[in-house]
Specification:
The complex is a heterodimer. By secondary structure, chain A is mainly beta. Chain A is built from no helices and eleven strands. In chain A, strands 2, 4, 5, 6, 9, 10 and 11 form a seven-stranded mixed β-sheet that branches. The radius of gyration of chain A is 14 Å and the shape is globular. The N and C termini of chain A lie far apart (about 40 Å). In chain B, the strands form two sheets. In chain B, strands 2, 4, 5, 6, 9, 10 and 11 form a seven-stranded mixed β-sheet that branches. A four-stranded antiparallel β-sheet of chain B has the order 1-3-8-7, with no helix packed on it. In chain B, strand 5 and strand 6 form a beta hairpin. Chain B is globular. The chains are: A mainly beta, B mainly beta.
Chain lengths: ~120, ~110
């Protein structure tokens, strides 16, 4: 059964790098059928797309985060990770990983989500 | 960056019908933007409801329907149930970039 599980540090000091990992079970992150992405939600706020990738293809980021964000993939562990450098209080949020795909009906974005991991940026 | 606006809040009576809309600060939402809709209840991860404008997921009740209404994407809830009280977000695709709407809080009263 397909399952996504986020993990992260919980607390990060300002100016440090946020490092988050999404562990996928039930399908390979290197599958050519799916896209994968990160979404975050600051306390009491709406959803914000962070970045997405297709294994072996393009990676795209929210323009507001592009200069600080990187996504990497570890196929041996079936994981993908988000790093967000120079963390500030504005990066405090619940971070979700999710799956997308394209088929004959069009794009299905983020049909399956992890439960989310809370990250606080504070000294 | 494009801002996609939704009604901040809507109230509907049980058994009633309510339509939520989703539109950018400039231009129109079309089928080529593949609008998706999500439901989020307090303390939970979002749940996908509608993809590519009007397609329901296998788990989405038939009372949820998606469409284009003028230059906006729309989500209609018909025969509203108490458990439909939640926040709803649209998502619009702009050629490699994804923009979530500002969200609508639906109250069932």
């Amino acid at each position: 059964q397909l399952h996504l599980q986020e993990s992260g540090p919980g607390l990060v000091k300002p100016s440090e790098t946020l490092s988050l990992t999404c562990t996928v079970s039930g399908v390979s992150v290197s599958s050519d059928s799916y896209y994968w992405g990160w979404i975050r939600q600051a306390p009491g706020r709406g959803l914000e797309w962070v970045g997405s990738f297709f294994y072996g293809g393009d990676t795209s980021f929210n323009p507001s985060l592009r200069s600080r964000a990187t996504i990497s993939v570890d196929t041996s562990k079936n994981q993908f990770s988000l790093k967000l450098s120079s963390g500030t209080a504005a990066d405090t949020a619940v971070y979700y990983c999710a799956r997308s795909y394209y088929d004959s009906t069009g794009y299905t974005f983020f049909d399956l989500w992890g439960q989310g991991t809370r990250v606080t940026v504070s000294s | 960056q494009t801002v996609v606006t939704q009604e901040p809040s809507l109230t509907v009576s049980p058994g009633g019908t309510v339509t939520l809309t989703c539109g950018p600060n400039s231009g129109a939402v079309t089928s080529g933007h593949y609008p998706n809709w999500f439901q989020q209840k307090p303390g939970q991860a979002p749940r996908a409801l509608i993809y590519s404008t009007s397609h329901r997921h296998s788990w989405t009740p038939a009372r949820f329907s998606g469409s284009l209404l003028g230059d906006k994407a729309a989500l209609t809830l018909s025969g509203v149930q108490p458990e439909d009280e939640a926040d709803y977000y649209c998502l619009v695709y702009y050629g490699g970039a994804y923009v979530f709407g500002t969200g609508t809080k639906v109250t069932v009263l």
